[in-house]
Specification:
This protein is an alpha+beta fold and about 425 residues long. The chain contains 14 helices and 20 strands. The longest helix is centred in the middle third of the chain and has 25 residues. The protein is globular and about 60 Å long. About 50% of the residues are buried.
Length: about 425
């Protein structure tokens, strides 16, 4: 059987069986067959999680990448039901054709919608939640092969768990999303001195619909991104010229940055200088585009990533410690650190559950050492009750995660009810759930 690998190459597995599903009936049949053979089951999307959450060694891997498209839509209500293997990129195109959009998105659109929801994918915006806050219903295939639906009104406990479910409850066959009318954003992206960004962080987070910044560990400048909805009173700047979009996103942020990363991998002693060069080369740009064209940024330079959600009030302390730790690392850091914000939500395993949140994501170019960096960051985040992103690299297990989530045991109870034999478990899920 062909080996499976995730996007970053940080997880591999060799399934005993790989089934390509193009209907809920296909999924159900595959789950039943796996049950008869005593095999575990994992659903495969685009493999964009850095953890082994989708790994299926010796089990049945259900490939959902051909199970795509919108099932139904109610444009007046703003709701669409979409098949689980649909990528966010395809979803954005389909929604645009309906005059709808997702209220918020992350900056990568390669993930399947089911995978993005399952791992708690989020964008940025102090008053806006992650993608899971936009899910209002699921259809799942459970461990016995039955196909069930859940929402806040029907099987509410299963729905509460499934909103960020890590694929541990069953295979999602479709999800119903609450969308908004299509909208445009004014994007303002510019370099700012790091100290100025930190001193005005709260003001910028509160005064912009969507706010984030990238800190280059050895540079003087951060890249600040402020995106705000176009209103009738706005005099919106023009769209970015196609040549400049190509130059900024394809050449500078991918081709040129990739070349710097490869140079740093060949000569690690140059990394601090290369990182400072990246910081110094940042340019300002202001433009208007449809929401998903602003939210999403092409990412062709491969990296490994760890991300922690910390209480927003603790962010500056976390960054102070991280900035002090980086110069002491045995291996330099090539990639910038990304900082975002999100509103508190009520989702059981959401990293923003019950608290206004700041997200700190650290990265390292593929092939460069990262473990000491990630370990140092994890220790800093742990000191303020940080919660790791379920799809990004971390070492926490159930004993450490349980105190971070008031509804952790409620989730485990639902999981045990719908999957008593652990059909959907793998080593990663067994570690984080303690089962």
């Amino acid at each position: 059987m062909t080996e499976w690998s995730n996007w970053a190459g940080t997880a591999t597995a060799t399934p005993a069986r790989r089934v390509r599903a193009v209907s809920a009936e296909d999924i159900s049949a595959a789950v039943k067959m796996a049950g008869s053979a005593g095999l575990t089951v994992r659903a495969l999307g685009s493999g964009h999680s850095f953890t082994a959450v989708a790994a299926c060694d010796g089990g049945t891997a259900i490939d959902l990448t051909g199970f795509t498209g919108i099932v139904s839509s109610d444009v007046a209500a703003g709701q669409v039901t979409v098949r689980s293997g649909t990528t966010i990129r395809s979803l954005n195109t389909a929604l645009s054709g309906l005059g709808l959009a997702m209220a918020n998105l992350g900056d990568i659109d390669a993930q399947t919608i089911a995978g993005a929801l399952a791992t708690g994918t989020h964008g940025t915006g102090a008053a806006i939640g992650g993608l899971a806050t936009q899910a209002v219903g699921f259809e799942l295939v459970l461990a016995d092969g039955s196909v069930v639906s859940c929402s806040a009104a029907s099987r509410p406990e299963l729905f509460a768990a499934a909103r960020v479910g890590l694929g541990a409850l069953g295979v999602v066959s479709s999800v119903t999303l609450q969308c908004v009318p299509a909208f445009s954003l004014i994007a303002d992206e510019r370099p700012m001195p790091v100290e100025d960004v930190l001193s005005s962080f709260e003001d910028m987070a509160a005064s912009n619909d969507h706010f984030e910044f990238y800190w280059f560990p050895y540079g003087r400048n951060a890249l600040v991104k402020r995106n705000n909805r176009v209103s009738g009173a706005d005099e919106a700047p023009p769209a970015m010229a196609s040549w400049r979009r190509w130059w900024e996103f394809s050449v500078m942020e991918n081709t040129a940055f990739g070349a710097l990363c490869r140079t740093g991998r060949l000569a690690p002693s140059l990394i601090p200088s290369l990182n400072r060069l990246s910081s110094a080369a940042l340019s300002a740009r202001t433009y208007t585009a449809s929401s998903h064209e602003v939210f999403v940024t092409p990412r062709r330079v491969r990296f490994v990533e760890s991300e922690y959600a910390v209480p927003r009030a603790s962010l500056l302390d976390v960054l102070t410690e991280l900035r002090a730790a980086v110069p002491r690392l045995p291996h330099p850091v090539m990639f910038p650190v990304e900082v975002r914000v999100a509103a508190a939500d009520d989702i059981w395993l959401s990293t923003a559950s019950g608290r206004d949140t700041a997200y700190v994501a650290i990265h390292q170019y593929v092939g460069l050492p990262y473990q000491e960096y990630f370990d140092a960051f994890e220790s800093i985040a742990a000191s303020v009750g940080g919660r790791p992103h379920w799809g990004k690299m971390h070492s926490l297990s159930a004993g450490q995660l349980r105190p971070l989530y008031p509804k952790f045991d409620d989730f485990l109870a639902v999981r045990a009810c719908v999957d008593p034999d652990g059909r959907f478990l793998n080593p990663y899920l067994s570690r984080v759930f303690g089962v």
